[in-house]
TrEMBL record:
Organism: Halobacterium bonnevillei
Superkingdom of origin: Archaea
Entry protein name: VOC family protein
CDD domains recorded: VOC
Listed SUPFAM superfamilies: Glyoxalase/Bleomycin resistance protein/Dihydroxybiphenyl dioxygenase
Family matches, as Gene3D superfamilies: 2,3-Dihydroxybiphenyl 1,2-Dioxygenase, domain 1
InterPro entries linked: Glyas_Bleomycin-R_OHBP_Dase
Length: 116
């Protein structure tokens, strides 16, 4: 089984460009009024809508190492909302950011205790 998470967007072009250029997503399917992006096994759909965009929830991208998370943090300094840290409750290493419409982004690795 596969799935796609869809979000209403007020500025699809800007949001899609951000996910493609800054986060490495590629266009999986272009439809009238919707763009579906893919990054490995994650698919996100952004669809034109009047009114406020959907910003609830967290889009989480995970990586194999702490070094990869740190590299993402350095590349996303302008959209990051904190610095990488260990989260003992979930046994992860993470930081957060925001996309152009204010959706919360999380960047993490589950293997925070392994050496890079």
């Amino acid at each position: 089984m596969s799935g796609i998470v869809f979000f209403r967007t007020a500025d699809r072009q800007r949001v899609v460009s951000f996910y493609r250029q800054r986060l490495g997503f590629e266009t999986w399917l272009e439809q009238d009024g919707c763009t579906i992006l893919r990054h490995d096994d994650l698919k996100l759909g952004f669809c034109d809508a009047d009114g406020d965009p959907d910003t609830d929830g967290i889009v989480t991208l995970y990586y194999d190492t702490r070094a990869a998370v740190d590299k993402r943090r350095a590349a996303l300094d302008d959209v990051a909302t904190d610095d990488p840290r260990v989260n003992d409750e979930y046994d992860i290493y993470q930081f957060f950011g925001e996309d152009p419409e204010g959706r919360t982004l999380e960047f993490q690795t589950f293997r925070h205790d392994l050496p890079d």
